[in-house]
Design a protein that fits this description.
Structural class: mainly beta
Strand content: 35-45%
Helix content: under 10%
Distance between the termini: 40 Å
């Protein structure tokens, strides 16, 4: 299997105190745009988010002539600065930048760089398979074959012989016929230094100090989701091996291993989807129930939880509930006053987004509201778990700089509006691999994170010890 070796410099911050860096902050002019929230030209604004993982991303610009035509884009920056370097992040099939021009405030562009016949764009050689041969299909919680695509991401780092003062805008021209295959542009940055601009993953150093995660042996069960009982002694796993997703449970033996697998048939009563989303000392949140579109039904249910006994209580209803998919992901506050859901609608930033809804006097939930652009990208945000402090949220996304196709992230609620969240932090390379990682469930009793991960194309269940103080800020 071919591998991508991502250069070590990718994992460090892209600038020192002496380096002034800006990312494109506004669009001035462009040749074509596919339109829409995904793959649109606005996706090149801001810092890179399809790097260092590279590959196809809804967070990158796909021009109409990206296969073999001419395209250009003009972008502005927040404030004028001296420019020594211009960097163009091409996350698919790099090597198509042909000319770069700058505007120093007079509204006219002057050429500063042109592609020579022997100019080569550095690209990252294939730890990921070059065709991204496995991806996670969240709709059925299964790993499926992905269509083949040429990979070859790269950064065009253009170092100017003489720095240019007072640059306010940059024009980049592309000839996409230079390289075969589809093309995407992730970001454009400028710097007053010749220190190469690169992408960085937002990571807390504490996560890199953790011990490596380990695989939990659960026989021939293919894990689609995982939750633990409040005492941490029983583990519920959704087995997606067959067409019908079935909940099975395991208990800890004397040596701390999980065994005594039991089929939980009374909770596997849905035709396709059966999974526990959260278990607290008082209630269980269960998902996957068939529902009727155009009603307040969501497919989620509340069960009471007393001394390990789980009994149906009621369905969760949301005013004007709408979801493109047949299933969703959800979490609840301890008192069930706020519901968090991951769904896709006409109002999402791109794919699946995170929403919240507050409970009404009659026990139903009000209209879902977006949790904001800080945590919702043009990609997918889903598989969420709200911890017991009702402020710390774990979720999965493919819309931020990461290590693989889907990574696990951490964010903190900043106020009581539920719309303001901290910038997502990647849980690091000890957890996130260059394949799929998802379904996070943090067991606060044992202070262990359980999650599912693709290992050579097969879903495995893993866990890793994380002190609660590292997650809860």
């Amino acid at each position: 299997m071919k591998k991508i070796i991502i250069l070590p410099i990718l994992f460090f911050a892209c600038c020192m105190h002496s380096q002034q860096v800006q990312w494109a902050s506004k669009l001035i002019k462009y040749s074509t745009d596919l339109g829409g929230k995904q793959y649109g030209v606005k996706r090149i604004l801001g810092k890179p988010d399809a790097f260092p993982q590279g590959g196809s991303s809804p967070n990158a610009w796909v021009p109409k002539n990206s296969l073999d035509g001419f395209e250009f884009v003009e972008v502005g920056f927040e404030k004028p600065q001296t420019v020594k370097q211009i960097a163009v992040f091409e996350n698919l099939n790099a090597g198509c930048v042909t000319r770069v021009l700058v505007d120093t405030g007079n509204g006219k562009y002057t050429g500063v760089w042109g592609r020579k016949k022997d100019w080569k764009t550095p690209s990252y050689r294939a730890t990921l398979t070059s065709d991204r041969n496995y991806y996670f299909g969240r709709k059925r919680r299964k790993i499926q074959k992905a269509p083949e695509v040429n990979f070859n991401p790269g950064v065009e780092n253009i170092i100017l012989e003489t720095p240019i003062a007072n640059v306010v805008a940059v024009r980049v021209e592309f000839s996409f016929a230079l390289v075969p295959g589809q093309k995407q542009i992730d970001a454009i940055g400028i710097s007053d230094s010749d220190k190469l601009l690169d992408a960085s993953i937002s990571i807390d150093p504490a996560f890199e100090e953790l011990q490596l995660s380990s695989i939990i042996e659960i026989g021939d069960v293919v894990p689609g989701s995982v939750v633990l009982s409040p005492d941490g002694n029983r583990m519920y796993v959704t087995n997606i091996k067959s067409e019908k997703d079935e909940i099975v449970s395991f208990t800890k033996n004397a040596s701390g291993k999980w065994d005594n697998m039991k089929s939980e048939t009374s909770y596997s009563n849905n035709e396709y989807y059966n999974f526990f989303a959260k278990i607290t000392p008082n209630y269980v949140l269960k998902g996957g129930k068939t529902y009727t579109r155009g009603t307040t039904q969501t497919g989620f249910e509340i069960y009471s939880y007393q001394n390990g006994n789980i009994q149906f209580d009621k369905d969760i209803s949301v005013v004007a509930y709408n979801n493109y998919d047949t299933t969703a992901d959800a979490s609840l506050t301890n008192d069930k006053s706020v519901l968090i859901m991951a769904i896709e609608t006409d109002f999402t930033q791109g794919g699946t987004d995170l929403y919240f809804s507050k409970v009404k006097e009659d026990g139903t939930y009000g209209i879902l509201q977006s949790m904001g652009k800080v945590i919702n990208s043009a990609g997918d945000e889903f598989m969420c778990q709200l911890l017991s402090d009702d402020k710390t949220l774990l979720f999965v996304s493919n819309g931020f700089s990461g290590f693989g196709e889907n990574d696990i992230y951490l964010t903190q609620r900043l106020d009581d509006t539920w719309k303001n969240w901290s910038e997502p932090i990647n849980l690091g390379s000890k957890i996130n691999s260059n394949e799929y990682d998802g379904n996070p469930y943090y067991d606060e009793s044992s202070q262990k994170l359980y999650y599912t991960s693709s290992v050579n194309g097969e879903l495995k269940l893993k866990n890793i010890s994380i002190p609660r103080k590292v997650l809860v800020r």
